[in-house]
Amino acid sequence: DSSNNSKSNPEPFESIAVLPFTNMSSDPEQEFFSDGISEEIINMLAQAPGLKVAGRTSSFTFKGKNQDLRTIGEQLNVNHILEGSVRKSGNKIRITAQLIKVSDGYHLWSEKYDRQLEDIFDIQDEISLAILNAIKIKLFGAAKDAVLKKYTDSPEAYQLYLQGRFYTSKYTADSFNKAIDYFKAAIKTEPDYALAYAGLSISYGCLWYFNFLPPDKCLPQALQATQQCLQLDNGIAESHLQMATFKCYYEWDFEEASIEFKKAIELSPNIAEVHESYAAFLALTGNYTEAIKHASIAFNLDPLSLLTNFSVGNIYSWARDIEKELEYGRRLIDLEPNFFGGHLLVGLGLMFLKRYDVAVPELEKAVSQNYGSFTLSFLGINYGLMGEKIKAREVLEKMEILRNTQWVGNFDIGAVYMAIGEFDNAFQYFEKA
Fold this sequence. Notes:
With 433 residues, this protein is an alpha/beta fold. The chain has helices spanning 2-8, 31-45, 56-60, 69-76, 120-134, 141-147, 155-168, 173-189, 194-209, 219-232, 237-249, 254-267, 272-284, 288-301, 306-318, 322-335, 340-352, 356-369, 373-385, 389-402, 410-419, 423-432; strands at 14-18, 22-23, 51-53, 80-89, 92-101, 107-116.
């Protein structure tokens, strides 16, 4: 597989991780601003051809940890690191940045900027161009336009947008709702702000995808925001990714979904989520070889992201490479023992190997860490397959009680009925789903 990978996706010679800039402001609330600057520079550099940029999630794993740069470089498999700091006071900002070569710790470039808030866009441009110049990547024409692309001239709208982005990365129902408020405020300030619509779309989409809200309370809003974004700017990869997700999982229009996924990859080949989502789509439609190829690309771009590892593990599970699935599950437990995904992957892998008894504690751990119909369903299926019908029914009762407080998937309930052999009940729920 790795040999195919190198042919179709040659590893660029130069690679970089942008560590989250330290917030030096007296106000800890300004964290969104320093995080946002780092993220924007990641996004700008990701547009440069011939440069591998470590994903945001992996880079942000090292936030506040003060780890040795060589160790960080090894873990993220990059040969350059950018670090810096941001101090914001009223309308004044001070930004420092330094580019370090991982192999010898040598400073290739460093700069300090004392400016006004409205200069923030120019500073980001200057930092990105200086980095590319220092690592000898030349930009021409369309590539230079992509790196320096502007979505707003309003520092006010931009700050609201950064606050929205700050909350989308926290992955809770509450944080997605907060993000939505900030994106709406950004749009109120700048009605044609395509990126803010992209943020809205992602937030509503996640509320739907993670069962945080009933579909009718978030799907129409997500679709509308995606369409609005694409209408304003057809060149934003995230919006094509969102549209692909709706086409695949909501409308089941796989042909259109495939077109949208490919468009997203063409626009931003450096974004792990795009490859990860496309890999899941390919696996679900039976193309396991291509799915594993894109899953590997996603993992290489964002090796410390919990969601990327979880998604890649799932793809191996669908391809029935259970050893690989278990490997990713165990890796996840090492990365973050409190994240349900690792225990779920290990539990599922053991279930596929018919080691039902050993799967139970793993699946129970996943349920306790993320209590919802998604995790309960797998526990119920496992009990059903091991002949523990009473325990499987207890899980079904828990899912029924859960309906009073949160959205419960009809498919999740149907799958448990299927595992205990009650096919009429199973089909009723599958029809509803």
